[in-house]
Batch of 2 targets.
Target 1
Amino acid sequence: MDLLELFSFAFMATIKFAVLVPLYIVKEELPFWQGFLFGLVSGITGVLFFMYLSTGILIFWKAIVRKLWPTRKSKPTFSKRNRNLIGLKSKFGLWGIAFLSPLLLSLPLGCFLAVRYYKNPWRVFWTMSLGVAFWSAVYAGFGASIVNIINSIRA
């Protein structure tokens, strides 16, 4: 296992968690606990990075809007995508965002939505981390099963 390869997979897994964590587990033939640890560390790193990046982007955007249009009240635009995201937030809440982010939404979008709609950063961090831990366990179990099948076919 090359250290540069490990870090590059971990970095890319922070962005596209659902694809790269199982791929790396199968590629390197990692046992369950090593695969779980890889997914957990890369996912939580991504959650921290994208939470702080999202917070900075939101602060920067509000400052620009206040500077360019000081008296104008911004009217919400309702596109189909916006309605779906608001529906996701109102139907499932923070837990839904946290558990769907590693699988469907991607960690950057999930962190952005969580930071945008929920103001308590510790609650957002721990909830998103639990979602990452759940999917890390699922992917590690799936990857370890595939590795065992491949090894039994080889023998």
Note: The mean pLDDT is 85.
Target 2
Amino acid sequence: MVRNLSEQNSIFNQFIAEIRDVDIQQDAMRFRRNIERIGEILAYELSKDLDYEEEEIFTPLGIAKENLLKQQPVIASILRAGLPLHNGILNLFDQAENAFISAYRKEHKDGSFEVHVDYLASPDIDDKVLILADPMLATGRSMELVYKALLQKGMPKQIHIVSVIASKLAIEHIKSKFPKNTKIWVGAIDDELTAQSYIVPGLGDAGDLAYGQKS
């Protein structure tokens, strides 16, 4: 299942427009906050697809019955660009466990690159709901490598991929490489990639816009 929130009109469109806008992007704090707000909305939509059970809640005047999550998810994010998105998801799933993965591009002189994963901090994910968060899904290869690295921590029962902007190529790659119990939640899907695998029209480098350029 792929859920693209931009297919319906809502205030969500405003946040997507602002993170794309080259002028508004100059305000790094606003960029981070917009990514965080997008994460909150995507997490809310995702929450509708999880499992709930009825529990009794004792109030000062009696007992209320509420449907609550049966299991808190594990939120796994790719450093560093994924941090604002992670925070937005965590604002909604505030009792979730958390995992962090370092993945980076190793560029070659001919313009090609390889994706490397060299750091992983994660709880056990066996038979849990796993939320994989990365603001930009360009090719989907980084997400695939991160998922494979996380499998050393167990086999999740559900996988939810949360992204701000994805390419059509990345969506198809994930469909072909991930298990059938994977669902994708995305803010927008763009058609093109550059030769360096940046999404067009996209928004640029999310990590640089959030935290400054790398040397």
Note: The chain has a mean pLDDT of 93.
